[in-house]
Write a structure and sequence with these properties.
By secondary structure, this protein is α+β, with helices and mostly antiparallel strands. It has 10 helices and 14 strands. The protein folds into 2 domains: 149 residues, no CATH class; 251 residues, no CATH class. It has a 6-stranded mixed beta sheet with strand order 12-11-4-8-7-13, with helices on both faces. Strands 1, 2, 3 and 14 form a 4-stranded antiparallel beta sheet that branches. A two-stranded antiparallel sheet has the order 5-6. The longest helix is centred in the middle third of the chain and has 30 residues.
Amino acid sequence: MTGPQIPGLTAELAAAAQRASMPDFTRWQEMIKSAGGCEQPVRLRGERVTLDGETGELIESYTTDEEPTGYLITACGNRRASRCAACAEVYRDDTYHLIISGLSGGKGVDEQVSAHPRVFLTLTAPSFGAVHAHKEKSGQAQPCRPRKNRPLCQHGRPQGCGRRHDGDDSMAGQPICADCYDYPAAVLWNAHAPELWRRLTLTVPMLIKAELGITHKALRRQVRISYARVIEYQRRGLIHFHAVVRLDGPDGPGQAPPSWATTELLERVLRTAAAQVEVPVPHPDAQRPPLVLRWGRQLDIQPIQVAAELDGMADKHVARYVAKYATKGAEDSGTVDRPIRYATQISSLKVSEHARRMIWTCFTLAGLPEYQELRLRKWAHMLGYGGHFSSKSRRYSVTLTQLRQARADHAAQAARQAEGLPEPDPNRNAVTVGRWKYAGAGLMHGEHFWAQLARDQVQRARRMRQQLTERDETPKVS
């Protein structure tokens, strides 16, 4: 919809004023607020009915035909902050609660879990070529890659760099010499990183069994290894794994592990497993031996404590750190946040040259039969990585589905109270059936201003709740 611009207003504010004058605006504004100010809300048409499962009596019904808008709005649910800041904030909060409940208890997890051995593990990628880096010492930027006598690589380019890169320097993460950089190996490492992680989780219990001299069955009767992890893209386009790893009793977080299951044991076997795990893959050059993919040499393992004053990382700091990366993607390393369909698009992408070459490499390797199962063309925008950004073991803590259902139940209860409707009878066998049809997505003319306003209000309220929660919990921690 377009119309004459109101004098004295910008085009955006004029469009917002026009949208506010429409008869369905009040109801639309309620919907967009309930969606948290979603940047790309989904519009649905359809109906929902709730029936008595025994008698077939109609308990409640809803249809979008009765809506002034003619449709229902629901949030897109995208976890990427680059795609929808509102839904990413919700996802970040959910991830925080998922992580912290597995560290301190709550959300159905026994509070005694805070006494279990647990560490914060960071696994890195190996080097596939020298890259520019931001280095600091005592708050001062240091030379990137100083080299005596200024040696040259086989392509006639300097092997070092004497510049002092700022933290936001676009050169950081870019290869010193792009022709020396092993792009095929880098892409294949990203693609096989989930398999490296899987093999690590299988190796850890094997090492514990070997150290104790017991069978797998005996180990399962005494201890369970739980984890929750996320990935982080480095500036060089390769990923890090950040994980909380915990030792429980055989029944999970509600049961203490045996006395021999210590933080020191957990750290020791994780270091050994990270050094041992490898994944052999065919080399792009069939005449050369297979590539053997391993974790990088930089490995960090820190014990997780209840409070920051203790020797280790505080559980709340770990939860915030992990949740921060749950909403980030490969775009932080200079690439795009959407799939690339055709190779002809690559040359015109607004990405770093390093990312462009990794994307080209994905398309090139995708044509080789030995890599077809990796689906590298589909994951080219992710620089080859096709795994989950966050995952957890079955009994680490509450699930995202449970958190979302609790939020939906809370919203439904608030809506019933606002409309003066009675609470549902818990003893009644109610069956709800819905039929929905996609009617579009995104914000229409004049709606961006109001969605941003709703988003700001929701985020302010969220920050206030967080501050109040932290203030109330501070005495407990100290």
